[in-house]
Amino acid sequence: MSFPWANQYQPKHPVMKWVDDRLPLPRFVYNAVGAGYPVPRNLNYFWNFGVLAGAALAIQIVTGIVLAMHYAANAGVAFNSVEHIMRDVNAGWFIRYAHMNGASMFFIVVYLHIFRGLYYGSYKAPREMVWLLGVVIFLLMMATAFMGYVLPWGQMSFWGAQVITGFFSAIPGVGEPMRQWLLGGFAPDNAALNRFFSLHYLLPFVILGVVILHIWALHIPGSSNPTGIEVKDEQDTVPFHPYYTAKDGVGLGVFLMIFAVLTFFTPNLLGHADNYIQANPLSTPAHIVPEWYFWPFYAILRAFTFNFLWIDAKLWGVIAMFAAIALLFFLPWLDGSPVKSSTYRPLNKIFFWILLFDIGLLGVCGMMPAEQPWVIFSQIGAIYYFAHFLIILPIISRIERPLPMPGSITEAVLAKHADKSSATA
Amino acid sequence: MVRPLGFLVGLGFIAALVMAILTTPLGNEPNASKAFHKEPRKLALASDGIAPHWDIAQLQRGMQVYKEVCSACHSLKLVAFRDIQAFGYTEGQVKSFAKGFQVPSINPDTGEPATRDGLSSDYFPSPYANDVAAAAANGNAIPPDLSLITKAREGGKNYIYSLLTGYQNPPANMPKELHPGPGLHFNPYFPNLNLAMAQPLQNDQVTYADGTKATVDQMASDVTAFLVWTAEPKLVKRVQVGWAVLLYLLGFTALTFLSYRTIWANKEH
Prior knowledge:
By secondary structure, chain A is mostly helical. Chain A contains 16 helices and 2 strands.
């Protein structure tokens, strides 16, 4: 589906015409990310992050496939095979550091993409399906990243796997047998490492599949925009190519520069020293921490320290951690406000920034050892997190009085420019 | 339906968290050893920063310290003799250096375990046959492999250098229970203050071929520089390639920015 004024694909070269008549793949691409996709003209740079997440996924798949050619998923040799890549494989250090930091870059852009969606109400009708598929991608990313971190078989790999698979043992009754079944043993070992490698190779392609659905679902209503007003006519839009390919190109350049600084100048900044020690089931690291992108959720997990009602504190933590992500699935129905963009939602705007601060605070708590004051900060942070989505958002969407909105995207753009020119005049 | 249910679920989590806050003590258990622990001292090396290079002479000296001191207890499993061509040695020099080591082998006639002269393709041999032997010889503490040690410890090179130079008598005001037990040695840079390794370096323990005076500080700096190299032999190349990549990306970004400006020139947005 598209707007009636969308450009139609006109093959210029006879070969392309021949292909298009038999398999309209060129037409498909043209309509998806080419000149055939009309996009609101007023997107700001926060709309770059979808394309950047796609670029990050592509980088992870390409570097990952090369790494898999040299890596050996066996608990006896995995650690040394990574060092073999670092030392003896041509440019292996580059591929490995790029993959390692590529995961962080992927999460950075996906978090910004999610925050963009939260601020501008991108999850609202008619784009609920885009949001739901996005949350699925986020969950798949977390699973993939976790299993990937286990593969170098360092101390933090091993003990991280021990902690994360330990979540399952919190389930009453079936938990411990289930954990052993998932690991293929009583603790992470060769069986677990092998299946993690297999799944770590599989899941990115599942992510790719869901990304295609995510983009498909996006193209039914078309892209959202900073005003949250739907497209009304042709002057509200520009063709994706060349307008947004050029703008995304700028974003891609900046993204790659930050990526390059991390990879080439401080490749281990976001990692842990302990992971350069080979996994040792007999020696527990002083302080087990997940990768930074899990810190807020790790803080929520550890915030529950009391056996409330008949549920064990550990099980509370596990349920809360999964609920913290699962509640995102219900967000389109928790927030009842018909106005999308927080630009016109004075109350939501305030609480959005509080939420962002709260997630940052939870992140710091997740990084720090389980000592005061970080425990109480994580408890307060977790209270706000759940209160924000489950209590505050439903209430403010009822009581808030939205600011007056422009009649159309074009009106908003022209008003902004009139402001600018009168200011400069 | 979603909103009332969500409201109840939210209240449930909040109640559990409020109870958690009320029942968690606000103080931390006192940790007496923290007061005597020191942050590592900084060690500046040629391989630091944004324009790193390898100080070949220092790496040669550092390797000598490893070979004559550390290698008595610590392995260096990830480093091959061929790798030290990076220190400016010729192929022939590497060969004769390797030949000075005995590496585990098999007697070709009997199949019995044996040793033979090292080859360039061999890795530095380990001082102990296995971890059990290492533990037995060192009061149950296994000396860690040093190949990645500067990347495998918080504080990296600074920590290794500080640890090597940080042996001292315990401070007079330190409580009795923090004092080193039998077979342990006080070092304020070690995470729990007492470690099994005795002070490994003494003044003039090695004789440097280049005439550098072998003070403890000098040997500690040299061997740390060597261990920075063993942890990441591609460090210097990595940063050099990084600058080229960054320069290319700057050009790329500038060009895309200019085309973005051109394309959008007549479109208000």
